[in-house]
């Protein structure tokens, strides 16, 4: 079984060999600009305080930060949406470590800006056994300082 890095690399190759060259170049330029502007010192770190929030899960039920933290530690994975093949690969890879996280008292939570219905589709499509939440408008992503539109 290929590693996540290998799967992502293969997906990149597959996509960039089938799309027009000018689109591939535009994507590569945007990736380079994002990499150059990314400031790792501003990234969330283990133990950082998580802003208070209430957002809906894949079934439309409101879930709060405090409810999630009541079960112990949490790991948040923000993803773009069900439409993103890279995100789906990552979510499936994360599913594989859920038992290890649970053994350490940690819950994995995936969050996207999509509607709860789409979070449900993502959960089903990828056979996820962890909460998938809907951050409409990227409110929590903005509070965490990770919201960024990569298009101009």
From TrEMBL:
Which keywords annotate this record? Antioxidant, Disulfide bond, Oxidoreductase, Peroxidase, Redox-active center
Please give the catalytic activity noted in the UniProt record.
a hydroperoxide + [thioredoxin]-dithiol = an alcohol + [thioredoxin]-disulfide + H2O
Task: Cite the Thioredoxin domain residue spans from the record.
Answer: 44-152
A Pfam family of the record is: AhpC-TSA
Q: Which CDD domains match?
A: PRX_like2
GO CC field: cytoplasm
Which Gene Ontology BP annotations are present?
A: cell redox homeostasis; cellular response to oxidative stress
| Keyword hit for Oxidoreductase | yes
The EC number(s) this enzyme carries: 1.11.1.24
For molecular function, the Gene Ontology terms on record are: thioredoxin peroxidase activity
- Gene3D superfamilies hit by this protein: Glutaredoxin
Q: Which InterPro entries match?
A: AhpC/TSA, Peroxiredoxin_BCP/PrxQ, Thioredoxin-like_sf, Thioredoxin_domain
Signal peptide positions are none
TM spans, by residue?
Answer: none
Q: What class of enzyme is it?
A: oxidoreductase
Q: Which family does it belong to?
A: Belongs to the peroxiredoxin family. BCP/PrxQ subfamily.
Q: What is this protein called?
A: thioredoxin-dependent peroxiredoxin
Native species: Sphaerobolus stellatus (strain SS14)
Supply the source organism's classification.
Answer: Eukaryota, Fungi, Dikarya, Basidiomycota, Agaricomycotina
